[in-house]
Every structure is written in C-alpha cells, then in structure tokens.
Amino acid sequence: MLTQTHRELVKGTAALLKEQGVALTRHFYARMFEYNPELKAIFNQGHQREGSQQQALAMAVAAYAQHIDNPGVLMPVLELIANKHVSLGIRAEHYAIVGRHLLASIREVLGALATDELIEAWGAAYGQLADVLVGIENKLYAQAAQVQGGWSGWRNFRVEHKQVESEEITSFYLVPADGGEVPAYQPGQYVSVKLFVPALGYSQPRQYSLSAAPGGQSLRISVKRESGDEEAARPQGMVSNLLHASVKEGDVIEVSPPMGDFVLHQDRDNPVVLISAGVGLTPMVSMLEALTRNAPKREVRFIHACRHGGVHAFREHVANVAAGNPRVKAKVHYEFPREEDQAHPHEVGRIELSRLQDLLPSGEADFYVCGPKPFMQAQMAALKAMQVPAERIHAEVFGTGGV
To answer: Which residues contact 145 (CB under 8 A, 6 or more apart)?
Structure first.
C-alpha cells in the first residue's frame, strides 16, 4: 500500500531523477536484458541503441515521481503507453520482472542515497503504477479480442500484395492467414509487425500506421525504408529493410491487433485539417479515405510536406480523392524540389500555416498533425499562435517519446 510517507520519499527523488534518470534507465535496461534476455524480442533494439527508449523512460519515471500525489494528471500518457504495450504483447507478468530490475537499478545507481526506506517507497509506487497500467491494458486486450474478426496477442497474416508507393515507402496488404475476418479499427490506429532479424538472432516488433480506411478485405501498412540496414549495423533500419528487401508476396508475418488513441473523431461534422510530413501521411490517408467515404460533406484539407517528388507517397491517390470531392483540398510542399517535380503542383519550402490562411476552412476545425518530432513541434506552435484551442489539436509523433 502506498502511504503518505512513501509519497513524500518518492517526490523527494524527482529532481534527482531528472538529473540522473538516463543513467538509471540505461543501467536498468542493460540489467534487465542481461538477466532476462528473452525480453529483447519485445523491446525495440533500434530505440535501445540510439538511446531514445532510455530517455523516454527516464522522463516518465521523473514525471511519475513529480505527480505521485495525483497520478491522474498523467492518464493521457498512461493511455498512450498502454496502447503501445498491448500492441507489443506486454502482459501483466512482465511487470514483476520490470519492477525487480527497476528497484535493483535504483539501489545500484543511487548508492548510499537509496536507503531501504526509499526502495520500499518506490516499490509501493511502482506497484500502484503497474496496477493502473495492467488495468487499462486488460481492457484493451479484451476489447481487441471481442470485436468481430479480432484477436489478442499475435496473429499470422499473409502478404497478399506489395506496392511501391515512392522511392522510400512501400505498402503491404495483409490478409489473415487463417482465412478469418479483418477486424474493424479506427482511422489513425496502428498495428505492430514482428519479424525475425537474423543479425540479432531473435524477433523484433515495429509499429506501423494503418494507411487505408477501415472496412476493406485487408490491412494496409505503408513502410518507410529507414537509412539503417537489416544487418543491425544501423539498427533503426533493421525491420524496415527486411520488409522492403526480403518479405515477399505470399510470406506470413505476425501482426498485433490495431491499437492507438490518435484517431479521427467521426462523431463530429466540423472541418478537418490533416497536416503531415514524410511517412507521417500514412494515418492521414486512412483518415482522408474514411472521411470521403463516410462523411463526404465534411470540409477536409490535406496538407503534406516531403523532401521532393521522388519520396512523395500516395501523390496520385490523394490528388484523385481531392478531384472527386469538392469539399477536399490538398496542398503539397517540397523542401528540395527536383526539375522533374515541376510537372506536379507543389509549393517550395516547408509548411508555414500562417501563410495558408486562405486554404484553411472557416469554423472550428479539428487539426491532426503527424510527422517527425521537430516538424510537429513547429506546426503545434503555429496552431497555438493562431489561437486554435488545445482540444482541437491532435498529434501523433513517430518514434519513442512525446511531442
């Protein structure tokens, strides 16, 4: 049970965790993988090697210590974490393993500062946090299994079709290998895909947005080939390069149920503005298709940025959707256009929302933003400067951590 004394002790470590949090979480992950190497197949080793996973966990631990008196403040973050955990197959039994190594790491990294009383307090605090997350995750697992065509955990899907969308992005159309149904999902959600990585000797999961509207006969993911490689010398590209180079039509891969809370609000009739950069357009294409199919009277703006036309995925598709619906308007920005890009309408440079006032719809629009972290920070700052209410801004950052 978490007592007031426990809370005071945990709060007292908040400043220390901000200072030494990354060292603590780096030690924690190394310790856990040494004693429980089977967990390497659950955690993204690309994020581990670049340090983003350690940074994200350090920030989360420090935030929890700061808000231990009112952890409900962190509920949006906990919901996000729970969705990712369910997508990766993390179960209640994993929390005991994580807790054991976290407490041991606190003692080993903080040394004399980690008194028995402090370890006891953090044990109680972690138990409370674990109970909250397990409760959320159990509900998500149950919901995923109960929908028509749904399941819990991993399910085999066959690659029915593989479609090159740009120089960097390829789509994979996935159908259930068991011949069953494709589940319903919400536009904007993602699935995890798990592949065996020969260079590592174990499997790795990666999360990819569903890039088509719900209701089809397959799940479509559109994967950017990262600059790394499948040999793990540059680990960020391990899985994406395997998908592009090695996974063929007819191959079977493991897929998790659709998850994620960055979703289109389909219960509204107000205008929608979809703002993306790079591969961040994948959930936006799903939203665009759903809007034009199910709510054709809603005003939609599709604003996308990428380096040049060669890496512009779904260009013709989005243009055709806009041409077929007068309420849809699309705008493309190329930061470094090539000569051959002159054949396709585009603006030169980065997206500057303050200069697109004529394009934006009148009325209280919902803004959905997705792309690399710096891009999203810039767009959200611009929306704030335009006096857009926070509740009308919805964001999804690809990778580990928040915006």
So the answer is: 151, 152, 257
Check if the beta carbon of residue 235 is closer than 8 Å to that of residue 45.
yes
Catalytic residue among 64, 95, 190, 368: 95
Per-residue confidence (pLDDT) for residue 397, from 0 to 100: 64
* pLDDT tier, 55 (very low <50, low <70, confident <90, very high otherwise): confident
Q: What angle do CA 12, 16, 22 make, to 5 degrees?
A: 135
CATH superfamily placement of domain 155-255: Translation factors (2.40.30.10)
Task: Round to whole Å and give the CA distance between 105 and 70.
Answer: 25
Dihedral, CA of residue 14, residue 19, residue 24 and residue 25, to nearest 10: 90
H or E element at residue 306 = strand 300-306
Contact 364, 268 (CB under 8 A): no
* pLDDT tens per residue across span 183-234: 999 999 999 999 999 989 999 999 999 999 999 999 999 999 987 554 544 5
In contact, 203 and 197? CB cutoff 8 Å: yes
Reply yes or no on whether 208 is catalytic: no
Half-sphere exposure of 388 (CA within 13 A, CB side): 26
pTM tops 0.90, yes or no: yes
Tokens for 206? Answer: 């990666």
The DSSP symbol for 268 reads: -
Domain boundaries, the chain: 4-146, 155-255, 272-397
| Catalytic residue selected from 29, 126, 137, 368 | 137
> Which of the four CATH numbers 3.90.280.10, 3.40.50.300, 3.40.50.80, 3.20.20.10 does domain 272-397 have?
3.40.50.80
**At residue 18, does pLDDT exceed 90?**
no
Among this protein's residues, is 95 annotated catalytic? yes
Q: Of 147, 140, 278, 283, whose CA–CA distance to 209 is shortest?
A: 283
Half-sphere exposure of 106 (CA within 13 A, CB side): 25
The CATH T-level fold of domain 4-146 is Globin-like (1.10.490)
